[in-house]
Q: What sequence folds into this?
C-alpha cells in the first residue's frame, strides 16, 4: 500500500523525518481494540502494541486512535511497537464523563465530516446545526448530506431550510438506497482523503457507507451495531472506498450523537434538576466542585455517566451559542434555544432554592 493512498503527505513526512532517521516505519492506525492496533504501512498491515514509554508517559488524549499516523518499530514477523503518534491535523473528541473534562479522542485526521440527516420525517436543520459545530470543532470540513431523497416530495424547500443554518457549507441531496446523487460525493472520496459520517441512528449512514465502499469491500463489511461483539476483533474501522478515499466508521463516531431527540433532553433535565438540589454550590456545574450530588449519583450508579455527559455537552452548546451571538438564526431555531435556555435557568434556580 502506497502511503499517499493512506493520506500521507509532505507535512507528515516533515514531522516524521526524525523518526525516519531513527529507522522507524510510518503507518496509519486502521483499527484499535483494547491495546492492540492494526496499522497499515508500506509493507502491509501490522499488528502493533504501544511501547512501554508511550503507554505510561503519554496523556490519554495522546494515545493513538483510528486514523492516527504513528511511528513504528517492527519486531518479530508481522508485529510492531508504536513509539510515537504524529501531531493530528484534525480530531474528533468528546469529553469523557466522570473525571471532569478529560478529553477523549475518537478519531483522527479526517478531511471531511459528512453530516447526514434524512429528508423524510426525521428532517431537522437544528440537528444539522449541532453537527456542524462538532465538525468545525474537529477541524475537518463539514459536508451536509440530505439522504432519502426518494421519500421527499418537496426537497427544494428542505434544502433551502438547511442552507439557512449551514451558510456556505456544501449540501448534497441523495438517496443512498437508490443511488441518486451519489456521484456528487465522489470529489470528497478521492485517494488519500478520509471522511467520517455523523448523524442519528436510522438516517442511512450504513447504507451510504456501503455505497461508498462499493463491491470490493463486502468482505471487510463492518457488522451491524446490534451484532453484539460479533467479529469485533477483526472489524476494520478505517475502510477503503471503491474510488480510493477512506471512510472511518468507529463505535465512538457512531455514538457521537448530539442531542438527537428532545425527549432525551427533557428526561436528562428532569433527573439532574432533582439531584442538583443537593449540590453544595448553587451554581454547581457538576464537574470538579466538591459536594456535588449529581456526580455522587453517578458514582453510586443512580445516574448514568452518559446523562451527565449529555448535560455537559448541552452546557458547552449553550456557551457556544452565547459566544456566537447570531441574530440571524431562524425563528424555529430561536424558539428552540429559548426553551433550552429556560430549562437551564430553571435548573439553576431550582438548585439555588435548595442551598
Ligand atoms: P444508520 O443507522 O444511519 O446506519 O442507517 P441505516 O443505513 O441502517 O438505514 C436505516 C434504514 O433506512 C434502513 O432500512 C435503510 O434501508 C433505509 N435507508 C437508508 N437510505 C435510504 C434512502 O436513501 N431511502 C430510503 N427510502 N431508505 C433508506
Ligand atoms: Zn453538582
A:
Amino acid at each position: 500500500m502506497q502511503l499517499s493512498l493512506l493520506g500521507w503527505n509532505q507535512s507528515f513526512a516533515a514531522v516524521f523525518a526524525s523518526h525516519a532517521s531513527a529507522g522507524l516505519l510510518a503507518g496509519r492506525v486502521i483499527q484499535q481494540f483494547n491495546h492492540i492496533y492494526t496499522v497499515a504501512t508500506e509493507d502491509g498491515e501490522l499488528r502493533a502494541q504501544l511501547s512501554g514509554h508511550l503507554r505510561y508517559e503519554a496523556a490519554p488524549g495522546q494515545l493513538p486512535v483510528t486514523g492516527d499516523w504513528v511511528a513504528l518499530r517492527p519486531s518479530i514477523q508481522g508485529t510492531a511497537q508504536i513509539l510515537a503518534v504524529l501531531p493530528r491535523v484534525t480530531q474528533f473528541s468528546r469529553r469523557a464523563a466522570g473525571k471532569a473534562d478529560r478529553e477523549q479522542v475518537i478519531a483522527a485526521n479526517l478531511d471531511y465530516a459528512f453530516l447526514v440527516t434524512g429528508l423524510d420525517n426525521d428532517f431537522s436543520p437544528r440537528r444539522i446545526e449541532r453537527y456542524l459545530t462538532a465538525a468545525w470543532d474537529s477541524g475537518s470540513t463539514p459536508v451536509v448530506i440530505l439522504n432519502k431523497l426518494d421519500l421527499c416530495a418537496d426537497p427544494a424547500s428542505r434544502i433551502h431550510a438547511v442552507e439557512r443554518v449551514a451558510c456556505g457549507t456544501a449540501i448534497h441531496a441523495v438517496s443512498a438506497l437508490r443511488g441518486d446523487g451519489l456521484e456528487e460525493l465522489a470529489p470528497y472520496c478521492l485517494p488519500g482523503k478520509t471522511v467520517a459520517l455523523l448523524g442519528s441512528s436510522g438516517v442511512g449512514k450504513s447504507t451510504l457507507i456501503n455505497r461508498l465502499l462499493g463491491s470490493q469491500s463486502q468482505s471487510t463489511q463492518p457488522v451491524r451495531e446490534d451484532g453484539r461483539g460479533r467479529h469485533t476483533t477483526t472489524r476494520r474501522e478505517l475502510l477503503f472506498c471503491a474510488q480510493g478515499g477512506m471512510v472511518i466508521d468507529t463505535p465512538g463516531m457512531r455514538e457521537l450523537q448530539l442531542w438527537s431527540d428532545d425527549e432525551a433532553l427533557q428526561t436528562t433535565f428532569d433527573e439532574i434538576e432533582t439531584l442538583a438540589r443537593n449540590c453544595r454550590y448553587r451554581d454547581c456545574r457538576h464537574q470538579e466542585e466538591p459536594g456535588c450530588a449529581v456526580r455522587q449519583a453517578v458514582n453510586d450508579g443512580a445516574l448514568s455517566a452518559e446523562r451527565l455527559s449529555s448535560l455537559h455537552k448541552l452546557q458547552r452548546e449553550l456557551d457556544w451559542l452565547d459566544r456566537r451571538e447570531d441574530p440571524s438564526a431562524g425563528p424555529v431555531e430561536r424558539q428552540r434555544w429559548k426553551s433550552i435556555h429556560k430549562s437551564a435557568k430553571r435548573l439553576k434556580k431550582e438548585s439555588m432554592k435548595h442551598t
About this structure: The first helix runs from residue 10 to 21.
